[in-house]
């Protein structure tokens, strides 16, 4: 008998789901977390265990870290055995029957727009389909919005191909993400983040090292993807017009998306090609579908239509192919909250245990939360409660997944679930489309995500927790029905769902554009206003970004990129951080600035402690690292001390409550930034040791470099004991994580602006009022 759970009202989204779900047993009672603390089983709900989950596809590799931290995956038990084992899985993917159609489309045309549900096999299979094509003599690039996806896809594809992944000569597959390049001389398939491909565009505008560029996850519409699309549109058009300067071979471009606006993308590329029509060459309809319509028939029709006007350029027809891969989606039962809640952590916690006690294994749970803080909070609670479960209840394994998580921890979600265990993956929107987590049958969606928002009036960019769009909610729900019928619990009401925006606003319409514009300028795009944007950003946002670059000295008054700007663009950093480094080279404190910037490029050097007791302990232990000048000098001292520690770095970290993994990353980034600075002639040599702790004079120089880059992020102390920004007069409070929290100083500069309950400055240094005035005078 089905009874409606107390707190969750069941609504059905469509009739087919209804049929399916009427078979499933409904939970009788939700374990009450408040009354059964540490023992959710106390209310008598027993686990329903059917079988242990089967090992996932990822189980058969031995992955190891090279001494330099690079990944090296070595297929085990013979390359071919591994490949064979995965072949049947590959053949079962929805994209498999489209292989020939995709190859044929790209033999005819240079651009293919391919859409297919997440998990249909786009990212893993398409590069493999293309590898043996006659036109494909060089490397295939495939972009990803996130590091974790680029790395895990590279591993997976290497396994499927039975080859090595990494830097070695035998490796055919590799990845390149910021500060971590795992590609070798013979890499044929390269997964890289969008930012890395943009960097390559700067070095090699005609992308000569690639035979094909696949742009994946276009629906996420990051600023970087929009720039890549604009550059590719121009490049494809130039190549077709014979205007390329160096490139002789064709370039094939595949645009892939889970929910793409196909028409918009086709029109976008077609418009690029049509510009040649204006010069008297052939135009006409440009779309050709590789499936659902017999290509020949359609082509014949079009040819007939066009031949009346122009017989001379038949090859100009059907220049952009489209392909739709129908997904495999099992029914998903929908459950909404009857009343809105803000306490997602509590609601999710109850649901996790209810599912665990009522639903059979296998079937992992995927929980979508807005960010690292809520994820870590829930992770801890799940672990605490799971400890209190009886012995005969299957185990619960809580695994976090967010962008800043160290690589090895991200990789855990792909490891096979141990016997009699259920995984609970606590993720940001990373798992929405970018990463396919195998084994999931239950989705809990809090309906929120953190998004970057540029506040034009303040000139500051901040991360805000906002409701997701309908399309994101649908994607999240879809994660539950990939392998079998599943369930999706939305921690919001159906009314709230109906009120969501249809789509997420593309990032380019809501974020700071200075990085994007610097990239464009460095790539030779002088007229940014007329750059082919898929969605044109508001003029005001473009103007603000240009102004910001002018203030940073990256542009000349004429709008042309300056020497300084060219250097800044070469760094895989925001223009502000790039500016700090360039300024530091002038003031002769570059090594120190590199250390600070490296520490700012990783999340949380200092461990986040939850209990007051531990917090106090940490405060005492870190006292000799803390600097009264603020967080940046504290970071510098921490990096320097860590680097000097030759033997027991791990123990040193433990003693100081510092994250060892974060510090390993910091040193890796520092090494790369030092090398980059040397290649840009900003550094004459790379020292083998750490510079001595800075004198007072040098400290002043370092802080003034920070000011030069972050002049927009400065605030003065007010008689009412608040801080107000110099520009914009906005109130900000010093974040509790800062060493300057609760301290009063005449002026501050901060490297991050966060808006949670109120506006916070994070990463704060104390500066003198006069210094700020001086820079403002010089800049504005
Ligand atoms: O790109 P798309 O979302 O269409 O699919 P995909 O990423 O190519 O994934 C196809 C299948 O490969 C998924 O259903 C996963 O089961 C598997 N896969 C995996 O096991 N490990 C990865 N790192 C990536 C994919």
From TrEMBL:
Residues 277-319 are annotated as: Disordered. GO terms for biological process: positive regulation of transcription by RNA polymerase I. Residues 348-524 form the Helicase C-terminal domain. Pfam families: DEAD (PF00270), HA2_C (PF21010), Helicase_C (PF00271), OB_NTP_bind (PF07717), WHD_HA2 (PF04408). Residues 22-37, 57-66, 310-319 have a biased composition (Polar residues). Its EC number is 3.6.4.13. Keywords: ATP-binding, Helicase, Hydrolase, Nucleotide-binding. One of its GO terms (molecular function) is ATP binding. InterPro entries: DEAD-box_helicase_OB_fold (IPR011709), DEAD/DEAH_box_helicase_dom (IPR011545), DNA/RNA_helicase_DEAH_CS (IPR002464), HA2_WH (IPR048333), Helicase-assoc_dom (IPR007502), Helicase_ATP-bd (IPR014001), Helicase_C-like (IPR001650), P-loop_NTPase (IPR027417). SMART domains: DEXDc, HA2, HELICc. Residues 103-278 form the Helicase ATP-binding domain. The keyword Hydrolase applies. GO terms for cellular component: nucleolus; ribonucleoprotein complex. Residues 6-15 have a biased composition (Basic and acidic residues). It catalyses: ATP + H2O = ADP + phosphate + H(+). This is RNA helicase. It comes from Sporormia fimetaria CBS 119925.
């Amino acid at each position: 008998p089905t009874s409606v759970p107390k707190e969750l009202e069941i609504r059905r989204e469509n009739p087919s789901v209804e049929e399916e779900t009427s078979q499933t047993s409904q939970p009788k009672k939700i374990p009450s977390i408040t009354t059964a603390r540490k023992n959710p089983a106390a209310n008598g709900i027993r686990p329903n265990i059917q079988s242990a989950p089967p090992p996932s596809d990822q189980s058969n590799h031995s992955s190891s870290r090279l001494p330099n931290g690079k990944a090296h995956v070595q297929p085990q038990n013979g390359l071919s055995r591994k490949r064979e084992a995965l072949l049947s899985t590959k053949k079962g993917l929805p994209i498999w029957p489209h292989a020939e159609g995709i190859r044929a489309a790209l033999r005819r045309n240079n651009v293919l727009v391919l859409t297919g549900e997440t998990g249909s096999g786009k990212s893993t299979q398409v590069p493999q389909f293309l590898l043996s094509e006659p036109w494909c003599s060089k490397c295939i690039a495939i972009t990803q919005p996130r590091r974790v996806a680029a790395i895990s896809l590279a591993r997976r594809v290497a396994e499927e191909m039975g080859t090595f992944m990494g830097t070695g000569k035998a490796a055919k597959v590799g990845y390149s993400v910021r500060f971590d390049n795992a590609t070798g001389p013979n890499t044929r398939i390269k997964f890289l983040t969008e930012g890395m491909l943009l960097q390559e565009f700067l070095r090699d505008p005609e992308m000569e090292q690639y035979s094909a560029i696949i742009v994946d996850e276009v629906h996420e519409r990051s600023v970087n993807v929009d720039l890549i699309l604009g550059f590719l549109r121009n490049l494809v058009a130039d190549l077709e017009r014979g205007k390329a300067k160096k490139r002789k071979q064709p370039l094939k471009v595949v645009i892939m998306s889970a929910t793409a606006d196909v028409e918009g993308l086709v029109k976008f590329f077609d418009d690029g090609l049509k510009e040649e029509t204006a010069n008297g060459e052939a135009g006409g309809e440009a779309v050709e579908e590789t499936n659902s319509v017999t290509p020949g028939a359609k082509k014949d029709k079009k040819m007939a239509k066009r031949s009346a006007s122009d017989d001379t350029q038949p090859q100009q027809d059907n220049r952009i192919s489209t392909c739709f891969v129908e997904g495999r989606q099992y029914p998903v039962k929908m459950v909404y909250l009857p009343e809105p809640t803000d306490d997602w952590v509590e609601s999710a916690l109850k649901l996790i245990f209810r599912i665990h006690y009522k639903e059979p294994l296998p079937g992992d749970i995927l929980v979508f939360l807005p960010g690292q803080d809520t994820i870590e909070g829930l992770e801890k609670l799940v672990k605490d409660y799971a400890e209190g479960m009886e012995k005969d209840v299957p185990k619960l394994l809580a695994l976090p997944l967010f962008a800043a998580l160290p690589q090895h921890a991200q990789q855990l979600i792909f490891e096979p679930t141990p016997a009699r265990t259920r995984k609970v993956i606590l993720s940001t929107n990373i798992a929405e489309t970018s990463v396919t987590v195998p084994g999931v049958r239950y989705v809990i969606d809090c309906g929120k995500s953190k998004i970057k928002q540029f506040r034009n009036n303040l000139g500051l960019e901040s991360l805000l927790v906002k409701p997701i769009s309908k399309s994101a909610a649908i994607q999240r729900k879809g994660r539950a029905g990939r392998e079998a019928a599943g369930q999706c619990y939305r921690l919001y009401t159906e009314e709230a769902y109906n009120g969501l925006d249809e789509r997420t606003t593309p990032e380019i319409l809501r974020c700071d554009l200075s990085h994007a514009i610097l990239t464009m300028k460095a790539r030779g795009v002088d007229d940014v206003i007329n750059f082919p944007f898929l969605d044109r950003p508001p003029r005001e946002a473009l103007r603000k970004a240009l102004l910001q670059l002018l203030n940073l000295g990256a542009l000349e008054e004429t709008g042309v990129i300056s020497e300084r700007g060219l250097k800044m663009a070469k760094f895989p950093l925001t223009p502000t951080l790039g500016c700090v480094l360039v300024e530091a080279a002038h003031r002769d404190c570059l090594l120190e600035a590199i250390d600070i910037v490296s520490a700012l490029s990783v999340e949380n050097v200092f461990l986040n402690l939850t209990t007051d007791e531990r917090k106090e302990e940490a405060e005492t232990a870190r006292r000799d690292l803390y600097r009264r000048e603020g967080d940046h000098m504290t970071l510098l001292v921490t990096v320097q001390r860590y680097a000097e520690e030759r033997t027991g770095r791990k123990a040193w970290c433990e003693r100081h409550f510092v994250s060892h993994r974060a510090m390993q990353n910091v040193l890796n980034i520092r090494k790369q930034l030092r090398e980059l600075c040397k290649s840009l002639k900003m550094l004459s040599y790379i020292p083998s040791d750490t510079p001595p702790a800075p004198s007072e004079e040098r400290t002043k120089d370092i802080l003034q470099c920070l000011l030069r880059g972050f002049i927009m992020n400065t605030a003065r102390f007010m008689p009412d004991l608040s801080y107000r920004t110099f520009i914009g007069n906005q109130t900000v409070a010093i974040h509790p994580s800062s060493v300057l929290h609760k301290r009063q100083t005449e002026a501050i500069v901060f490297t991050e602006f966060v808006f949670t309950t109120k506006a916070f400055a994070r990463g704060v240094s104390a500066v003198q009022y006069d210094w700020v005035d001086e820079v403002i005078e010089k800049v504005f």
